[in-house]
């Protein structure tokens, strides 16, 4: 492909998909685990905030504010490089685990707000109706409120997941060998920057497209009642 | 069967209910009227403990609630023997009309699914919606929604049904279908407490009318008495302005 003397090796470019793609499970693994653990933490936070305990709320608010108000990269550096300085034993935790727990925490800060807003957006009168016929608050939440809140929460939660997938790109700075890291290493050693980075960009894009498509289908299905 | 004694409720500095005493006999229809902000809705909501009264007692048959000490069990028991129809319907939007009616049967009464379905259909038919079992609330008109809400409230076989301005959020042409369902209930001797602004309807169905103003029961009596014979100036002013 040097006919027009364009410095772009198409063959090499195409071959990189399989090489870089091999590390896709690492990228997806970090993102999926972060999402699941983050969602769990977010649910707990949303539940605790709902108890309206003043002191606890202040702490949780600070937590949310900090992790939403600082870049993911800074958070990763603080946890991976910073904390072991004070607690040396933390240095023994594998980078993958550190990546997952920092990203879980980061995601949880966003998702707890999403969950709270979704629950609040279900009109209160449905809860009262459920109570008025003798249901307990737990039954009402489980059968009436949360299913509706879930439907509202799904698009923003999907966005959080996409952010997490893209956020995994930063973990190569810690030494996690995921798709971005592989692209970076190959690019530096071959000087074929455009080929490598374009491939990795396209892979991220495809993940997002596939996931968005799945999400849209789920939304259509859940919107049946509305 | 329903006895309310010395009920008080305030929101902050505002006394919404002041020493409310009320008796409703089995099978009777009591209609509460009065100006906005007079505490009618709060009284009704207190009977279902959606509002916690500050003082006083509520008794339905053998369930007795004292405001000073309301347990979770008491609350549940009271709510199982009363049911409420709201101004804004409050249908469960994630469930079909029939599922709305079945919900209390399944969850509260613990009735088997097949049996609950049969009962659910019975009550849907009763409010004149045999063709709307599978419709979601978003597919129903206001009047239909309110009738589903009434079916849902009837289904748990309450001892008393509470209606909080059930037609106030409806388009005028849909009011009658709801009132008709309520009238049928009255004919079947359902015990009802109704807050409404539909005076014609009140006059027709009420065994007793209660006039409330500023958190107090000002007067009560037959519709004939309240509408035509009472010489209380507050009542006369209210009725004159309608």
Explain what the structure shows.
The complex is a heterodimer of chains A (226) and B (242). Chain A has 226 residues and is mainly alpha-helical. Chain A has helices spanning 10-21, 24-50, 54-69, 72-86, 95-121, 124-132, 137-167, 179-190, 193-222. Chain A has a single domain, classed as MetI-like (MetI-like fold). Chain A has nine helices and no strands. The termini of chain A are far apart. Chain B is of the alpha/beta class and 242 residues long. Helices cover 39% and strands 25% of the residues of chain B. Chain B has helices spanning 40-47, 72-81, 97-107, 113-126, 142-155, 172-187, 199-205, 223-229, 233-240; strands at residues 2-11, 14-24, 29-33, 55-60, 63-66, 82-85, 160-164, 192-195, 208-213, 216-221. The two termini of chain B are 32 Å apart. At the A-B interface, helix 6 and helix 7 of A face helix 2, strand 6, helix 3 and helix 5 of B.
